[in-house]
Design a protein that fits this description.
single chain; mainly alpha; two-stranded antiparallel sheet; 8 helices; 2 strands; globular
Protein backbone atom coordinates (compact mmCIF):
# COMPACT_ATOMS: atom_id res chain seq x y z
CA UNK A 1 0.00 0.00 0.00
CA UNK A 2 2.79 2.44 0.93
CA UNK A 3 4.62 1.83 -2.38
CA UNK A 4 1.42 2.45 -4.35
CA UNK A 5 0.75 5.74 -2.58
CA UNK A 6 4.33 6.90 -3.08
CA UNK A 7 4.15 6.04 -6.81
CA UNK A 8 0.96 8.08 -7.16
CA UNK A 9 2.63 11.00 -5.37
CA UNK A 10 5.46 10.90 -7.92
CA UNK A 11 2.86 10.98 -10.69
CA UNK A 12 1.51 14.35 -9.47
CA UNK A 13 -0.86 13.54 -6.64
CA UNK A 14 0.76 15.39 -3.70
CA UNK A 15 -2.35 15.31 -1.51
CA UNK A 16 -2.19 11.56 -1.31
CA UNK A 17 1.35 11.79 0.06
CA UNK A 18 -0.17 13.29 3.22
CA UNK A 19 -2.22 10.13 3.54
CA UNK A 20 0.97 8.11 3.18
CA UNK A 21 2.62 10.04 6.04
CA UNK A 22 -0.45 9.71 8.28
CA UNK A 23 -0.75 5.97 7.73
CA UNK A 24 2.97 5.47 8.39
CA UNK A 25 2.72 7.45 11.62
CA UNK A 26 -0.18 5.31 12.81
CA UNK A 27 1.79 2.17 12.04
CA UNK A 28 4.73 3.41 14.12
CA UNK A 29 2.45 4.18 17.06
CA UNK A 30 0.81 0.78 16.89
CA UNK A 31 4.06 -1.19 16.93
CA UNK A 32 5.83 0.95 19.57
CA UNK A 33 4.94 -0.16 23.10
CA UNK A 34 4.10 2.62 25.59
CA UNK A 35 7.07 3.50 27.79
CA UNK A 36 9.57 2.05 25.34
CA UNK A 37 13.14 1.21 26.25
CA UNK A 38 14.50 4.59 25.20
CA UNK A 39 12.07 6.58 27.35
CA UNK A 40 12.55 4.24 30.29
CA UNK A 41 16.30 4.75 30.19
CA UNK A 42 15.91 8.52 29.91
CA UNK A 43 13.63 8.72 32.93
CA UNK A 44 15.70 6.38 35.10
CA UNK A 45 13.54 3.33 34.48
CA UNK A 46 14.74 -0.10 33.46
CA UNK A 47 12.75 -3.00 32.09
CA UNK A 48 12.81 -6.34 33.94
CA UNK A 49 10.99 -9.64 33.30
CA UNK A 50 8.70 -8.68 36.19
CA UNK A 51 7.85 -5.23 34.83
CA UNK A 52 9.39 -1.74 34.81
CA UNK A 53 11.66 -0.81 37.70
CA UNK A 54 11.71 2.87 38.57
CA UNK A 55 13.68 5.24 40.81
CA UNK A 56 11.09 4.98 43.61
CA UNK A 57 11.38 1.17 43.57
CA UNK A 58 15.14 1.37 44.02
CA UNK A 59 14.76 4.00 46.73
CA UNK A 60 12.42 1.68 48.62
CA UNK A 61 14.99 -1.12 48.64
CA UNK A 62 17.73 1.25 49.77
CA UNK A 63 15.63 2.72 52.59
CA UNK A 64 14.53 -0.68 53.89
CA UNK A 65 18.15 -1.81 53.92
CA UNK A 66 19.19 1.39 55.74
CA UNK A 67 16.42 0.90 58.31
CA UNK A 68 17.75 -2.54 59.15
CA UNK A 69 21.34 -1.32 59.43
CA UNK A 70 20.54 0.82 62.45
CA UNK A 71 17.38 -0.74 63.89
CA UNK A 72 18.91 -4.19 64.27
CA UNK A 73 21.80 -3.02 66.50
CA UNK A 74 19.53 -0.53 68.29
CA UNK A 75 16.98 -3.24 69.07
CA UNK A 76 19.77 -5.45 70.36
CA UNK A 77 21.18 -2.59 72.44
CA UNK A 78 17.78 -2.03 74.06
CA UNK A 79 17.99 -5.50 75.61
CA UNK A 80 20.90 -4.38 77.76
CA UNK A 81 20.19 -0.67 78.34
CA UNK A 82 16.42 -0.24 78.58
CA UNK A 83 14.77 -0.09 82.00
CA UNK A 84 11.25 -0.87 80.85
CA UNK A 85 10.30 -4.44 80.10
CA UNK A 86 8.02 -3.16 77.35
CA UNK A 87 10.83 -1.22 75.65
CA UNK A 88 12.98 -4.35 75.73
CA UNK A 89 10.16 -6.36 74.13
CA UNK A 90 9.66 -3.72 71.44
CA UNK A 91 13.39 -3.65 70.77
CA UNK A 92 13.39 -7.41 70.33
CA UNK A 93 10.52 -7.23 67.82
CA UNK A 94 12.33 -4.53 65.83
CA UNK A 95 15.54 -6.54 65.77
CA UNK A 96 14.02 -9.89 64.75
CA UNK A 97 11.66 -8.39 62.15
CA UNK A 98 14.43 -6.40 60.50
CA UNK A 99 16.76 -9.40 60.43
CA UNK A 100 14.15 -11.20 58.30
CA UNK A 101 13.33 -8.13 56.21
CA UNK A 102 17.03 -7.51 55.59
CA UNK A 103 17.44 -11.01 54.14
CA UNK A 104 14.48 -10.36 51.84
CA UNK A 105 15.64 -6.95 50.64
CA UNK A 106 19.17 -8.18 49.89
CA UNK A 107 17.82 -11.12 47.90
CA UNK A 108 15.41 -8.90 45.96
CA UNK A 109 18.06 -6.25 45.29
CA UNK A 110 20.42 -8.91 43.93
CA UNK A 111 17.70 -10.18 41.58
CA UNK A 112 16.91 -6.66 40.34
CA UNK A 113 20.55 -5.47 40.21
CA UNK A 114 20.01 -2.68 42.74
CA UNK A 115 23.10 -1.74 44.78
CA UNK A 116 22.50 -1.44 48.53
CA UNK A 117 24.38 0.47 51.24
CA UNK A 118 26.55 -1.38 53.75
CA UNK A 119 26.37 1.11 56.63
CA UNK A 120 23.78 3.49 58.13
CA UNK A 121 23.49 6.97 56.68
CA UNK A 122 24.61 10.12 58.50
CA UNK A 123 21.25 10.71 60.22
CA UNK A 124 21.05 7.14 61.45
CA UNK A 125 24.60 7.22 62.74
CA UNK A 126 23.70 10.40 64.63
CA UNK A 127 20.68 8.69 66.21
CA UNK A 128 22.77 5.70 67.22
CA UNK A 129 25.34 8.04 68.78
CA UNK A 130 22.59 9.77 70.76
CA UNK A 131 21.36 6.45 72.11
CA UNK A 132 24.87 5.41 73.04
CA UNK A 133 25.48 8.70 74.87
CA UNK A 134 22.44 8.71 77.21
CA UNK A 135 22.31 6.93 80.52
CA UNK A 136 20.83 3.46 80.63
CA UNK A 137 17.37 3.28 82.12
CA UNK A 138 14.42 5.66 81.83
CA UNK A 139 16.36 8.28 79.84
CA UNK A 140 17.35 5.65 77.33
CA UNK A 141 13.78 4.32 77.07
CA UNK A 142 12.40 7.76 76.26
CA UNK A 143 14.97 8.53 73.58
CA UNK A 144 14.69 5.04 72.05
CA UNK A 145 10.90 5.26 71.67
CA UNK A 146 10.92 8.77 70.24
CA UNK A 147 13.81 8.37 67.79
CA UNK A 148 12.56 5.04 66.44
CA UNK A 149 8.96 6.25 66.13
CA UNK A 150 10.00 9.34 64.18
CA UNK A 151 12.17 7.26 61.86
CA UNK A 152 9.35 4.79 61.17
CA UNK A 153 6.98 7.63 60.33
CA UNK A 154 9.38 8.89 57.68
CA UNK A 155 9.98 5.53 56.02
CA UNK A 156 6.28 4.67 56.11
CA UNK A 157 5.47 7.41 53.59
CA UNK A 158 8.04 5.90 51.21
CA UNK A 159 6.90 2.29 51.40
CA UNK A 160 3.21 3.20 51.22
CA UNK A 161 3.70 5.34 48.11
CA UNK A 162 5.66 2.59 46.34
CA UNK A 163 3.08 -0.03 47.30
CA UNK A 164 0.37 2.17 45.80
CA UNK A 165 2.10 2.87 42.49
CA UNK A 166 4.88 0.41 41.64
CA UNK A 167 4.77 -1.24 38.20
CA UNK A 168 7.04 -4.12 39.21
CA UNK A 169 5.56 -7.49 40.19
CA UNK A 170 8.44 -8.31 42.57
CA UNK A 171 8.54 -4.94 44.28
CA UNK A 172 4.79 -4.88 44.92
CA UNK A 173 4.58 -7.81 47.40
CA UNK A 174 7.81 -6.68 49.05
CA UNK A 175 6.43 -3.17 49.51
CA UNK A 176 3.28 -4.74 50.99
CA UNK A 177 5.43 -6.62 53.50
CA UNK A 178 7.38 -3.47 54.33
CA UNK A 179 4.16 -1.52 54.94
CA UNK A 180 2.97 -4.22 57.35
CA UNK A 181 6.28 -4.29 59.25
CA UNK A 182 6.53 -0.51 59.57
CA UNK A 183 2.91 -0.26 60.73
CA UNK A 184 3.55 -2.98 63.29
CA UNK A 185 6.65 -1.22 64.60
CA UNK A 186 4.96 2.19 64.86
CA UNK A 187 2.17 0.59 66.89
CA UNK A 188 4.63 -1.23 69.14
CA UNK A 189 6.65 1.91 69.80
CA UNK A 190 3.49 3.83 70.61
CA UNK A 191 2.50 1.08 73.06
CA UNK A 192 5.42 2.11 75.29
CA UNK A 193 3.55 5.30 76.20
CA UNK A 194 6.72 7.31 75.59
CA UNK A 195 6.04 8.79 72.15
CA UNK A 196 5.58 12.55 72.07
CA UNK A 197 3.12 13.02 69.20
CA UNK A 198 3.55 16.79 69.20
CA UNK A 199 7.09 16.34 67.87
CA UNK A 200 6.03 14.24 64.88
CA UNK A 201 5.65 15.88 61.45
CA UNK A 202 2.12 17.05 60.76
CA UNK A 203 0.16 15.18 58.08
CA UNK A 204 0.21 16.91 54.69
CA UNK A 205 -2.49 19.46 53.99
CA UNK A 206 -5.50 18.14 52.03
CA UNK A 207 -5.22 18.47 48.28
CA UNK A 208 -7.38 21.15 46.64
CA UNK A 209 -10.55 19.89 44.94
CA UNK A 210 -10.04 18.89 41.32
CA UNK A 211 -10.76 21.50 38.68
CA UNK A 212 -13.37 19.23 37.12
CA UNK A 213 -15.54 19.74 40.22
CA UNK A 214 -16.60 23.05 38.72
CA UNK A 215 -18.28 21.12 35.92
CA UNK A 216 -20.78 19.74 38.42
CA UNK A 217 -22.26 23.22 38.96
CA UNK A 218 -25.45 23.66 36.92
CA UNK A 219 -25.13 26.19 34.15
CA UNK A 220 -27.70 28.96 34.28
CA UNK A 221 -29.09 29.85 30.89
CA UNK A 222 -30.30 33.34 30.11
CA UNK A 223 -33.59 33.46 28.22
CA UNK A 224 -34.21 36.12 25.65
Amino acid sequence: MFRSLFRRFKNGEPLLFGVFIAVAAVAVVLITPPGGTASLATEGWTQTPQGPLGPADRDLLVKVRLAGLWEIPSGQQAQQRAASKRVKEVGMHLMTDHLKLDEEVRALAAKLNVPLPSQPNADQQSWMAQLAAVNAGAEYDLLFARLLRQAHGKVFTVVAAVRAGTRNDLVRPFAQRAVEVVMKHMTLLESTGLVDYSTLPEPPAPSPPPVTAALDTPVRREHA
